Amino acid sequence: MPRNHAPPGDPFPLEDIISATPESVRAFRDQSVILRAGALIRQMRETAGITQREMARRVRTSQPHLSDLERGTGTQGPTVLMLQRIAEACGTTLSFEVSGRRSGRSLAGGSGGEDDL
After folding, report:
1. 99 within 8 A of 107, measured Cβ to Cβ
2. Pick the CATH number of 18-106 from 1.10.260.40, 3.90.1170.30, 3.40.50.720, 3.30.2290.10
3. Is the per-residue pLDDT at 113 higher than 90?
4. Structure pTM?
5. Going by fewer Cβ within 10 Å, which terminus of the chain is more open, N or C?
């Protein structure tokens, strides 16, 4: 039986697969951020009452590309520039909070956790 498949009726061992290696943990975390960004894009667009086609026109991309961003497909999420364009097209603003600790130096704001995106 392939390594990533559970027998019928058994729970899928997702946690075991995700935590198998540092690379798999990083990949899961990265994809989670991409999916959250996509959900945010869709929420902003729908709240503004804009179709994907119209949004794509406003932010100078294709409708299929916008759909990919909203679904979180691919290995890279939206660029900061694309997020800025989307926010402006929806009549809102985009802001970021950077926080964390590196080499004993603390950046302003946030709890310092890795999930502060």
Report:
1. yes
2. 1.10.260.40
3. no
4. 0.67
5. N
